[in-house]
């Protein structure tokens, strides 16, 4: 077993103990008050310490995986002072449960360390710092934030300080202090009264709006009134109003749905009878009766059901999206209770409301019995009752406190990388803004100083009154030169406000919304198998999809279908299931005939695709009773019994449907039934198995559910002949350590089985080891006693159960092993190949064994046989260090120097490698060598990762891994997955994408820049945490190469164009202000200034941002390398920004000087010139955009030309209002040819340099996109025809 | 691991989700949603590039020639009189001269017509260094007051020329009106008076819709500081065309405003005798005053800029077109040739 040394800062002699101690300390200290009430005080004595430590050491082997986590037990973030007990006291207190609860420990500890890393906890222990080198060393602040977000989820799990007491059928007493909420839900944010203030408050959380507001407020100051007061408020009011209407509408819909929900009715026990009551009036403690197909109104504990054994089937579709039925049980103690007409009394003590829908801990006192309640006894709001006539339950959580409601939060917002670059450029724009304002202010100051003497009487300035009245000689609107200068600075900010493209943020939101629409509607990303559309759950990172450099993929359910099929079995050392011997039961008529009756009575749903091995079948049906037959019998008995699958009889009673939460189990049970061991019935107390037509009723004494830490499950079965067996199945790593090697007794199929396991793994099959053991009466008694205790305890039940399981899960005798195939999803190899061509590195992170991982890697073309495999399998820090160093030397991977700067490009990296080699060896770099160095594959396992990620070896791994083409990580824990993502994310600027389908991928998905969830077999947690969700892995190709590329190109252009559009306008104003004695006059009317960015030029940007596409999807898929555009930041970078700015400067000068020179010494008035400028700038920016459009569809035409027409229309309207000073200007202008000729000249001169630049660039330095575009358009003229299907 | 939670929008409706789940979520196919609307995808082929440049050249050169020609045909006489019309004894104190009531401001000069000038000949005055576009100035007016008799109470904007000392509203109010230009010109050719037609010199829209026919000047120029011209208070504003012209502020600090039209032709070498009443004070801020007599063309006044610019741009484009033709002939790049793709070009650096 692995030892814990590297994890710990202490001397090597003690580490395991320390870990355990801290671990258990963590587990239990959560809940002192409850713990005290539950445990025998006498146990708490120091005398037990030694004994327990001994035990710990013995049990080291039992929890191998506890060490597989890189972040080691630290401590729990303490929430209240109550829990702050002295260290020693806690220690002693925990000794009775030395084997800490690994799952919780891991989770909590990691969270704990997070808290520490962020400096929140002052209660520090020396262990902490040394225990978190990983975090302390190089965790970026950013990633910590992500961590912390994902952590919030977990917090509630452990918040058990004070439990909640529910008195059955006594809501008044239950809610004595009015601390529980009613069942009325309110998902709406506003009421009519609070709408306005609250909505405004929320809206003004955006910096953009605050900027708007500040500018508008500035404009209200009398000396600064640059624009008319109402005009200056218009854009802000418009945006606010639009958003408010949208929010209001959404909220109104929420109100309606709330109202509908709240007014539904359910039968509630009132005055001794079940009477209908509206949902919103239901309270905690009340007893409710639910009928089939009804929706459950609140979280309830089952009391009794229509089923005698107390089973109820529920569908949790609304909660977690899983469509299979789940079983919930009423406790035996309560199922026979009569409710109507009787008074019932009982008390439930349960944990405080929390968000974890997969855990529930409580106990109940009922009629003098006290018993535990678990997850299997609670039915959550939103579930539907199925296949059960009715059930009666008592409400424990109502309304907002139900788990469903607590879970309705949105995933954390991510920000796209491009946006952060954009902010950098926005900074430059603010520098420009400041410089311009400064120039204006300075000019104003100097001008005033120069004309100081004349100011009183300058006809166009006149600072004084000369009216002989009381105001005589007072200055008018004049505050002294310094103040005037300052005001001039402020008013130039108002005039130049749109230099900071605040509207860009709003435009980007709209554009992303449009892009999401197209992604969602893409028929190529619709998965008909699961009827799942593409989902955009995050609207902020569309363009990041175009720049992904690393993909971290889960294996099971992501690369594979997660539809398990039983393939092979090794029983008694013999391998069955070789395709040669396989027979399809239903094609082989003779076999059917020979078994005659039994087949006719067959009740389960036949699955023709399961073939049986006739040899095995014959063995099972043979009359002999030798050891081999017995082993096979027990083997299949275990398959049928040791699971949590529920057989559901269909209505016609002909077939049995197996419903279970684990597809592996379903596959095993189906296999068992194919071989004649049909699981017919399962209740909490017994199971019925049809063994070749013979019904066998087995009593289930206890069941230890599958545990991701121990990686095994067991069930204790009492046979009709009163013999008791424990049946165990589990992962080989955890099983072989608890199986006795009975070599001396002769049945040495231990080795054969192991050989078979290796073979199976090589074929990419998932293996499980099956074992059993007879229990003696004494053992049984001891176990039963502990089991009872553990399963009724309210706290740390998982830990205690694990300890209890360890009692019987030992000295097992091996029966055999199973191998299940998890088929690759469609199109996976092709997708991976094309992603790789696109320059994306695909890393697979899996919990599977190394052999399985490698074989899957081979079958999905991730690994090829000609690749050099580097395998890192260290069991200590030193070993890992050596392995890494060796690998680096052997394959010539350079040190950190090259990589510190962040790996720029995989290609360049590889070429550098090969150059090194060639220079060393002074040989020509021949093709073979090139191939060798470029195709390194790194295989690393979770144990090594523990040592590597935690220590300074992370850099070494990073160097090595980034030099490899493929990285496979096997046996990794969920948090290690996140750690690996962070390994890359915190060290490079490259974008990372994590894709997964299960709960174990959630942390990885949240850590990565882009998280993609697959709607798979394993529920919807990954989807819930993801930014994008889809049905199949292969859609990733389209998502990245096509939509990612488009989105990136579109948003990048959009940003640059918006910078340009606003800057050119502002610069034009700026030049004019220099001609107005720095007085911030704008020649443009107020309305034109305001409408410019809101109406005149905004629509085309949105349309182009949403709809323009440079290349068709076919070309993009045909040349995956075009994706490199995003990697090289080709569409948006500093250089482009500066080029755009130079172009902007040129265009603004043209805009200003052409009319100036045309009309110099002319009669033109300020409004005519303003009108000319307005039209010129609108036409110019739209033509600029038109020149860059790749794809002119009808809507594009409409947007561009429409904008120009609308701009004209607005001018006409504004100029037709006699009271405005600019009345009739446009009519007057339009009559003069000079006007039109000037505009034409502005457009041509303005655009000419850009056109020239474009032409020359495309002629001499064509970009990849350009060439692909030419190829697409010129060589396939009918390309644009939609593929009619 | 706890569930991350429902979607943002699906907060309340557990039921809604179920209903939508029943029907297939397959996206409805439409050309729009698949981004496959028929579209024109322009690329810069050599043909397009050359055609574009040639056509710009072909369009621009004639326009340039035409406007240059038009501009050349315009005859313009510019006479700067601000310093000429100061008597020598006041040459050091021009401000004093212009402010004084007692000085004789009449000033007579003779200029020669260089070329024949066909009627109508427009008479402009040109001011320089006068910031009519100053923010304080542009805003200092009240359009309501100019249009409606009832709104004669002037607005805040008009300060400091809004009310007289005893609180009477000034019509027209504001700095623009207050600083009305008041030099006058009289012309004689060969001892015959040249009539200057001062009708219809303002925009008809201004006369008809901005300046009321029943609004009469009131209390105008009654303060201690006289800014400029006075108005005959018996003539309604819409007939005070000098005022209307002045009230359209110029866009630039050097500007011309129409004074009137001469509707007789002038022959070359005609001597025009000009009598200038030099009343307007530009001396205090160093502004120049010029008198301009000019004919017009279809392009407006005399300005070579447009013609030259058009010719330059047109010529440049033709030149570019020729250069591109040469480049395409000498160093052609086959369009859409995959061998130019970056990963094919520098294959040595790529190791896939």
Automatic annotation (TrEMBL), chain A:
InterPro entries: ATPase_P-typ_cyto_dom_N, ATPase_P-typ_P_site, ATPase_P-typ_TM_dom_sf, ATPase_P-typ_transduc_dom_A_sf, HAD-like_sf, HAD_sf, P-type_ATPase_IV, P-type_ATPase_N. Residues 166-231 form the P-type ATPase N-terminal domain. It is an enzyme of class 7 (translocase). The chain crosses the membrane at residues 224-245, 427-449, 486-506, 1063-1084, 1090-1107, 1136-1154, 1166-1185, 1192-1214, 1234-1253. SUPFAM superfamilies: Calcium ATPase, transduction domain A, Calcium ATPase, transmembrane domain M, HAD-like, Metal cation-transporting ATPase, ATP-binding domain N. Keywords: ATP-binding, Magnesium, Membrane, Metal-binding, Nucleotide-binding, Translocase, Transmembrane, Transmembrane helix. GO terms for cellular component: plasma membrane. It is found in: Membrane. ATP binds at residues 554-556, 665, 706, 729, 766, 846-848, 971, 977, 1000-1001. One of its GO terms (molecular function) is magnesium ion binding. The active site is at 554 (4-aspartylphosphate intermediate). The keyword Transmembrane applies. It is a multi-pass membrane protein. It catalyses: ATP + H2O + phospholipidSide 1 = ADP + phosphate + phospholipidSide 2. Its main location: membrane. GO terms for biological process: phospholipid translocation. Belongs to the cation transport ATPase (P-type) (TC 3.A.3) family. Type IV subfamily. This is Phospholipid-transporting ATPase.
UniProtKB/TrEMBL annotation, chain B:
Its main location: membrane. It holds the Pfam family CDC50. InterPro entries: CDC50/LEM3_fam. The keyword Zinc does not apply. The chain crosses the membrane at residues 48-70, 308-330. Residues 1-30 are annotated as: Disordered. Residues 1-16 have a biased composition (Gly residues). It is found in: Membrane. Keywords: Membrane, Transmembrane, Transmembrane helix. Signal peptide: none annotated. One of its GO terms (cellular component) is endoplasmic reticulum. PANTHER family: ALA-INTERACTING SUBUNIT, CELL CYCLE CONTROL PROTEIN 50. Belongs to the CDC50/LEM3 family. This is ALA-interacting subunit. It comes from Trapa natans.
């Amino acid at each position: 077993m692995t030892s814990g040394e590297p994890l710990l800062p202490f001397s090597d002699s003690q580490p395991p103990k320390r870990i355990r101690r801290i671990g258990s300390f963590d587990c239990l200290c959560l809940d002192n008050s409850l713990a005290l009430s539950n445990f025998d005080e006498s146990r708490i004595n120091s005398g037990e310490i030694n004994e327990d430590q001994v035990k710990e050491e013995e049990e080291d082997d039992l929890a191998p995986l506890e060490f597989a986590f890189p972040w080691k037990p630290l401590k729990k973030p303490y929430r209240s002072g109550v829990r702050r007990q002295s260290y020693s006291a806690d220690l002693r207190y925990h000794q009775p449960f030395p084997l800490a609860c690994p799952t919780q420990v891991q989770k909590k500890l990691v969270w704990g360390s997070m808290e520490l890393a962020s400096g929140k906890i002052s209660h520090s222990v020396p262990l902490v710092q040394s225990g978190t080198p990983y975090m302390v060393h190089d965790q970026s602040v950013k990633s910590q934030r992500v961590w912390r977000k994902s952590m919030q989820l977990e917090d509630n799990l452990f918040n058990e300080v004070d439990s909640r007491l529910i008195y059955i059928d006594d809501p008044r007493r239950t809610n004595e202090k009015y601390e529980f909420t009613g069942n009325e839900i309110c998902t709406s944010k506003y009421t009519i009264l609070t709408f306005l203030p609250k909505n405004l408050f929320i809206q003004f959380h955006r910096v953009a709006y605050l900027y708007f507001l500040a500018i508008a407020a500035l404009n209200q100051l009398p000396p600064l009134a640059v624009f008319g007061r109402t005009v200056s408020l218009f854009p802000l009011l418009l945006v606010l109003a639009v958003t408010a209407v949208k929010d209001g509408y959404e909220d109104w819909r929420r109100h309606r749905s709330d109202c509908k929900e709240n007014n539904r009715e359910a039968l509630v026990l009132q005055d001794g009878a079940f009477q209908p009551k509206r949902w919103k009036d239901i309270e905690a403690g009340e007893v409710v009766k639910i009928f089939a197909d009804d929706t459950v109104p609140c979280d309830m504990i089952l009391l009794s059901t229509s089923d005698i054994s107390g089973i109820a089937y529920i569908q949790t579709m609304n909660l977690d999206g899983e469509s299979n039925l789940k079983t919930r049980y009423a406790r035996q103690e309560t199922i026979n209770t009569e409710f109507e007409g009787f008074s019932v009394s009982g008390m439930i003590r349960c944990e405080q409301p929390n968000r974890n829908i997969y855990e529930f801990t409580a106990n109940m006192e009922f009629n003098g019995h006290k018993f535990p309640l678990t997850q299997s006894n609670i039915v959550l709001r939103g579930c539907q009752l199925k296949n059960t006539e009715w059930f009666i339950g008592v409400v424990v959580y109502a309304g907002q406190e139900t788990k469903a409601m607590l879970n309705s939060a949105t995933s954390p917002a991510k920000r796209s990388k491009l946006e952060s670059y954009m902010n950098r450029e926005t900074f430059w724009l603010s520098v420009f803004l400041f410089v311009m304002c400064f120039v204006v202010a300075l000019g104003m100051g100097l001008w005033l100083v120069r004309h100081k003497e004349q100011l009183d009487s300058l006809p166009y300035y006149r600072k004084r009154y000369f009216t002989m009245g009381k105001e005589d000689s007072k200055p008018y609107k004049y505050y002294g030169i310094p103040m005037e200068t300052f005001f001039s600075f402020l008013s130039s900010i108002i005039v130049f406000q749109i230099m900071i493209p605040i509207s860009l943020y709003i435009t980007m939101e709209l554009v992303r919304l449009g892009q999401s629409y197209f992604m969602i509607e893409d028929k190529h990303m619709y998965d008909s198998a699961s009827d799942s559309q593409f989902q955009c759950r995050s609207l902020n990172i569309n363009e990041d999809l175009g720049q992904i450099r690393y993909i971290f993929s889960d294996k099971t359910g992501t690369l594979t279908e997660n539809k398990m099929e039983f393939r092979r079995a090794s029983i008694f050392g013999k391998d069955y299931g070789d395709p040669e011997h396989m027979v399809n039961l239903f094609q082989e008529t003779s076999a059917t005939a020979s078994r005659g009756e039994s087949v006719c009575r067959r009740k389960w749903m036949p699955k023709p695709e399961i073939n049986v091995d006739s040899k095995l079948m014959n063995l099972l049906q043979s009359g002999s009773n030798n050891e081999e037959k017995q082993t096979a019998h027990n083997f299949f008995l275990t398959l049928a019994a040791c699971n949590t699958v529920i057989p559901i009889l269909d209505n016609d009673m002909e077939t049995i449907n197996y419903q279970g939460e684990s597809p592996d189990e379903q596959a095993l049970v189906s296999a068992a039934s194919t071989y004649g061991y049909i699981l017919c019935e399962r209740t909490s107390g017994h199971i019925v198995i049809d063994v070749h037509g013979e019904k066998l009723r087995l009593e289930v004494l206890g069941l230890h559910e599958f545990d991701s830490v121990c990686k095994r499950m067991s069930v204790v079965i009492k046979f009709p002949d009163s013999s008791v067996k424990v049946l165990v199945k589990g992962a080989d790593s955890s099983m072989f350590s608890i199986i006795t090697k009975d070599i001396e007794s002769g049945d040495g199929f231990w080795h054969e089985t192991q050989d078979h396991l290796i073979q199976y793994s090589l074929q990419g099959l998932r293996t499980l080891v099956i074992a059993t053991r007879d229990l003696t009466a004494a053992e049984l008694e001891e176990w039963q006693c502990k089991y009872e205790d553990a399963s009724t305890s309210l706290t740390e039940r998982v830990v205690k159960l694990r300890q209890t399981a360890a009692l019987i899960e030992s000295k097992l005798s091996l029966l055999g092993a199973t191998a299940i195939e998890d088929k690759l999803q469609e199109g996976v190899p092709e997708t991976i190949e094309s992603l790789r061509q696109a320059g994306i590195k695909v890393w697979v992170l899996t919990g599977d064994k190394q052999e399985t991982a490698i074989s899957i890697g081979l079958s999905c073309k991730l690994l090829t046989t000609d690749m050099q495999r580097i395998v890192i399998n260290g069991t200590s820090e030193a070993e890992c260090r050596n392995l890494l160093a060796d690998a680096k030397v052997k394959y010539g991977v350079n040190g950190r120097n090259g990589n510190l700067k962040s790996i720029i490009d995989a290609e360049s990296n590889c070429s550098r490698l090969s150059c090194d080699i060639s220079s060393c060896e002074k040989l020509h770099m021949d093709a073979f060598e090139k191939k060798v160095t470029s195709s390194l594959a790194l295989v690393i396992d979770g144990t090594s990762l523990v040592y590597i990620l935690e220590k300074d070896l992370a850099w070494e791994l990073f160097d090595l891994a980034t030099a490899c083409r493929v990285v496979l990580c096997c046996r990794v824990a969920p948090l290690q997955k996140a750690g690996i993502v962070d390994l890359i994310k915190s060290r490079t600027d490259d974008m990372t994408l994590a894709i997964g389908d299960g709960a174990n991928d959630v942390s990885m998905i949240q850590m990565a820049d882009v998280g993609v969830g697959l709607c798979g077999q394993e529920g919807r947690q990954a989807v819930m945490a993801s930014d994008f969700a889809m049905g199949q892995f292969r859609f990733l190709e389209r998502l990245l190469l096509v939509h990612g590329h488009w989105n990136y190109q579109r948003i990048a252009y959009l940003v640059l164009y918006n910078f340009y559009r606003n800057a050119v306008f502002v610069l034009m104003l700026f030049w004019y202000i220099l001609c107005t004695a720095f007085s911030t006059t704008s020649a443009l009317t107020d309305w034109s200034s305001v409408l410019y960015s809101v109406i005149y030029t905004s629509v085309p940007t949105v349309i182009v941002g949403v709809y323009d596409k440079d290349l068709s999807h076919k070309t993009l898929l045909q040349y995956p390398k075009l994706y490199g555009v995003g990697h090289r930041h080709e569409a948006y970078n500093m250089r482009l920004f500066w080029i755009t700015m130079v172009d902007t400067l040129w265009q603004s000068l043209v805009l200003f000087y052409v009319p100036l020179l045309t009309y110099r010494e002319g009669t033109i008035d300020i409004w005519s010139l303003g009108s000319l400028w307005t039209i010129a700038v609108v036409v110019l920016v739209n033509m600029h955009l038109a020149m860059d459009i790749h794809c002119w569809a009808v809507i594009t035409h409409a947007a561009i030309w429409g904008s120009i027409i609308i701009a004209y229309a607005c001018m006409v309207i504004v100029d037709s209002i006699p009271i405005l000073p600019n009345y009739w200007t446009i009519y007057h202008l339009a009559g003069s040819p000079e006007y039109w000729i000037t505009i034409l000249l502005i457009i041509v001169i303005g655009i000419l340099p850009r056109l020239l630049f474009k032409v020359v660039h495309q002629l001499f330095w064509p970009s990849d996109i350009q060439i692909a575009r030419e190829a697409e358009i010129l060589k396939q003229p009918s390309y644009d025809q939609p593929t009619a299907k | 691991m706890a569930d991350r939670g429902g979607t943002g929008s699906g907060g309340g409706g557990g039921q809604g989700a179920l209903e939508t789940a029943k029907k297939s979520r397959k996206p409805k196919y439409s050309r729009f949603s698949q981004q496959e609307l028929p579209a024109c995808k322009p690329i810069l082929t050599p043909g397009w590039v050359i055609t574009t440049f040639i056509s710009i050249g072909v369009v621009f050169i004639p326009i340039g020639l035409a406007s240059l020609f038009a501009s050349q045909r315009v005859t313009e006489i510019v006479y700067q009189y601000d310093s000429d019309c100061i008597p020598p004894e006041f040459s050091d104190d021009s401000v004093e001269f212009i402010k004084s009531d007692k000085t004789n401001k009449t000033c007579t000069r003779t200029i020669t017509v260089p070329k024949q000038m066909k009627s109508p000949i427009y008479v402009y005055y040109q001011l320089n260094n006068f910031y009519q576009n100053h923010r304080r100035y542009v805003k200092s007016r009240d359009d309501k007051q100019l249009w409606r008799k009832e709104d004669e109470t002037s607005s805040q904007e008009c300060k400091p020329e809004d009310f007289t000392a005893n609180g009477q509203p000034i019509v027209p109010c504001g700095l623009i009106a207050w600083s009305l230009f008041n030099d006058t010109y009289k012309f004689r050719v060969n001892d015959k008076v040249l009539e200057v037609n001062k009708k219809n010199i303002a925009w008809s829209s201004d006369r008809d819709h901005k300046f009321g026919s029943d609004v009469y000047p009131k209390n105008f120029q009654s303060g201690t500081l006289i800014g400029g011209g006075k108005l005959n208070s018996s003539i309604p504003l819409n007939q005070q065309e000098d005022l209307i012209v002045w009230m359209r502020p110029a866009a630039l600090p050097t500007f011309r405003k129409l004074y009137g039209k001469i509707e007789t032709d002038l022959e070359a070498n005609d001597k025009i005798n000009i009598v200038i009443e030099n009343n307007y004070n530009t001396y205090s801020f160093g502004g120049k005053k010029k008198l301009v007599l000019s004919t017009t063309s279809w392009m407006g006044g005399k300005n070579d800029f447009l013609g030259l610019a058009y010719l330059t741009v047109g010529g440049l484009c033709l030149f570019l077109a020729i250069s591109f033709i040469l480049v395409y002939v000498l160093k052609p790049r086959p369009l859409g040739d995959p061998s130019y793709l970056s990963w094919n070009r520098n294959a040595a650096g790529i190791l896939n």
